[in-house]
Amino acid sequence: MTEISITGNPHRNGFVLGHPHFAVLENICLQKLNLVDDSILGVKFNPFLRYGRKENCLKELNLSNNLLFDSKDRYVFAFCAFKHLKIIRIPREVVKDNRVKRSTKDDVSYSFCLPRTLEQLDLHSHVKSYFRRRVANLTIINGSNLKVLNMANVTVQDCNGTVNGIENLEYLDMSGFNCKLLSEHLLSNFPKLITFIAQDAKLGIGLKSLQTASEFFKKNLDLQHIDLMHNSLHSLPDGLFNHPFRHQISIILDKNNLQSLPNFPSKPNTFQQISLKYNKLSCFSDDNIAKLNIIKPASVFLRGNPIECSCKTLNFLKWVHRSGIIGDVDEVKCVLQNGTLAILSHFLRNLKTFEISCQSKIWLMLASSITSVIILAVIIGIIYYRYRFAFEYFFLRIKMKLRHYQPLTEEFNHDAFISYSHKDIPWVKTLYDKLNSKGFSLCLYHKDFQGGMPIAECIVEAINSSRKVVFVITKNFLESSWGTYEIEMTRMHAFREGRESMVIVILKDDIKKENLPRVLKEIWFKVVCIVWPSDSEAPYNSEDMFYEKLCIALSDGRRKLCDDNTSNL
């Protein structure tokens, strides 16, 4: 007889395994003993220890954790007595105990013994159990042959330590550990580790806290399988996999919070498979795609991600279709532009048609953008043309301020600036001579404008430095573009300085009001209009009366009034 299994018996028929039972076992070269699923009520420690010390053939022992009486640690040390034991399975069934004590100085360093021949130790729990010890400086005696250690859901208080004595370990499952506190040397003493499983171990916090993340896997160059599922990972720290691994790695990063490809090193043949299921990936960016083209994994798995099938992700979709690297493309669902779901593989069958429609949309958007820009430019152009003189006036004012120009506040250099057409110079010369003889200082652009200075700046400066602006409106003036410009500049200045009464208009050539420039008609109710006599026989319509009116208009606001004597006019 090489195997005994006592399983599935109800408690009313149960018994406690003691001296009589182990005495029977001592006479049998038993290789496998199964005592699981509440088949017996318990195992007494002393008979169990005596059985281990006796010569026996037992190679595999499966026990329910609740069968062990007294301190469970005593049973662990009792295992040292077995000489041929290779497999121990003691699944824990302890649920959360809120009375668990805080770790103390006593558990900073501790050790326990295993059978020298032990190759597999399984202490996993189907539900989370809470263990008060820490992974501090743990030493395992006689653990040199241990290759498999399964402690899934045995939730130790932290992972801030090292484990010694199991240097040949190949498989480690520490799922459910509380690794918020994580040592970068936790795995340093497992140089032959092939499989590392740490699901739901709070590594999202622990890995982020490492000062030198490159030290974590530095000694584990034989790694082939890594499972970091359900760790709330948003990213992986720099340098974590930047090592010369001897084999390609299959890594599982399912059920995390990844929104892009993790920070893998850009080295070919590093990863065999990359599983990114049930994360928050909508697509791979161009940089992610370039990195995957360098890494060249055999497969990438994306099921359960909110993959987006739209024109915005077209490059990603084309890469998926071309590379064939997505291993579960038939199971991946993507969100279409209308909000519905589609199987990614089905969508990729019509990718060419979709690409053409995207290009049409791009051209449509481009055309719309160009049209919008043109319309905006036209509107701006119309606004600028409508208010071009206002813009130019203020630009000139700013330009003059930058040149430290200081406008006069009370005194003016001239009584009036005369605006006229150059074709009317003879008549304007006569006007100038008669007014100048009466003490009026007049500014004429032929006489007073500075050479080398832009004419627009000269006009603005002449308007600023004159008490009045006199427009000589003739047919020649109406044909001149500079005349309209000077009227606009005068209006802007009068509006800005509150000098609405500064404009005097002299009408010649029988010009009617309706023929005047629009801008002049807009301020007509505020200007002083004096008509040059065209009919000498009409009463009160002589040159003397004209000059008398002009003299009065020019004297308005002048400190020194002109002489009322107009006999010389």
Automatic annotation (TrEMBL):
<keyword id="KW-0812">Transmembrane</keyword>
<dbReference type="InterPro" id="IPR032675">
    <property type="entry name" value="LRR_dom_sf"/>
</dbReference>
<dbReference type="InterPro" id="IPR000157">
    <property type="entry name" value="TIR_dom"/>
</dbReference>
<feature type="domain" description="TIR">
    <location>
        <begin position="412"/>
        <end position="550"/>
    </location>
</feature>
<protein>
    <recommendedName>
        <fullName>TIR domain-containing protein</fullName>
    </recommendedName>
</protein>
<feature type="transmembrane region" description="Helical">
    <location>
        <begin position="362"/>
        <end position="387"/>
    </location>
</feature>
<keyword id="KW-1133">Transmembrane helix</keyword>
<dbReference type="GO" id="GO:0038023">
    <property type="term" value="F:signaling receptor activity"/>
</dbReference>
<keyword id="KW-0472">Membrane</keyword>
<dbReference type="GO" id="GO:0007165">
    <property type="term" value="P:signal transduction"/>
</dbReference>
<dbReference type="Pfam" id="PF13676">
    <property type="entry name" value="TIR_2"/>
</dbReference>
<dbReference type="GO" id="GO:0005886">
    <property type="term" value="C:plasma membrane"/>
</dbReference>
<keyword id="KW-0732">Signal</keyword>
<dbReference type="InterPro" id="IPR035897">
    <property type="entry name" value="Toll_tir_struct_dom_sf"/>
</dbReference>
